Structure prediction request, 367 residues.
Amino acid sequence: MASELDVAARRTLDEIAATTTLDALEALRVALLGKQGSISGLLKTLGKMTPEERTIEGPKIHALRESVTAALAERKIALESAALEARLAAETIDLTLPAPDAPRGSVHPIAQVMDELAEVFADLGFAVATGPEIEDDWHNFTALNMPESHPARAMHDTFYFPDRNEAGREMLLRTHTSPVQIRAMIAQGAPLRIIAPGRVYRSDSDATHTPMFHQIEGLVIDKGIHLGHLKWTLETFLKAFFERDDVVLRLRPSYFPFTEPSVEVDVGYTLINGKRVIGGSGDASGGGWMEVLGSGMVNRKVIAAGGLDPDEWQGFAFGTGVDRLAMLKYGMDDLRAFFDGDARWLSHYGFAALDVPTLSGGVGTPA
Ligand code: 2NL
Prediction:
């Protein structure tokens, strides 16, 4: 006949086998083997037995503890693998779903041109730098040799915020991406080779101006940098961007507070069916010249504002409007269409999402 202990053992092992969750199994383990557990209680009874009783009951109780421990471990493995199987079954995805009939959506020409510019300049060793669109007047103006009284500040039609920041500086929407480059000079030091593309804001709105537009600036800081580096870089950039070897540059002296000397860059265009096409010398072809970039040698005061010694480091910088470059390259004549969000315009002028610009594939092959 089975002893009381044998019956209890059978019932306990059945109970373990019947658990359906890891939490229930853990609760059962504590109830059996924990400090206050029933099997722990049985082990404590050994102390009060006579040596004779103990020789008989001891091995039985120990054997029970071992079989219960083994059963708990075995059930734990079974429940864990069942949980894993259930998760794997629940997380399957159907890779046989069909692709849509036609690609949907397209890349906006501004986004495409920004990618093209990043690709062209990456090839020349420039990294892309970004920064805040909400700026303080020091980074946007003062550091760029435009102190508070400077007339160029008024010309920027700046959007100001009503409140100053913690440092007491006036806050504004950046009017150009130059502050990104000031921040990069301070944070990274020299030498430096970056482009700063992004949104900029000026309170100006008519057929050729939108209050938000896109700019890209470039900055090179190194030792012994001179106008020759500027000219070669801009010529190489414009030829790669417009994908033509016959791009001709004309450099004109100009003025910007942040560069000295300053140089405006025109490219020659040719008239083809009454449309201006970049390429060829403007005067010779019956075409003309179009201004595409502002540039110059970085003003000593700006190098110093960037935390560098202008006797040790020199540099050149340039800036241009991305929207204008996009219109020139892709033959669009209305700036405002860029911001209308008209799906028909986008499907005509937009680019395929997978058409990532590469130098070998042509930076701007349209969809
Ligand atoms: C234009 C002219 C320009 C720069 C931007 C620059 C930036 C730093 C230092 C010096 Cl940090 N210069 N930027 C220089 C010359 C021209 O932009 O017509 N933009 C639309």
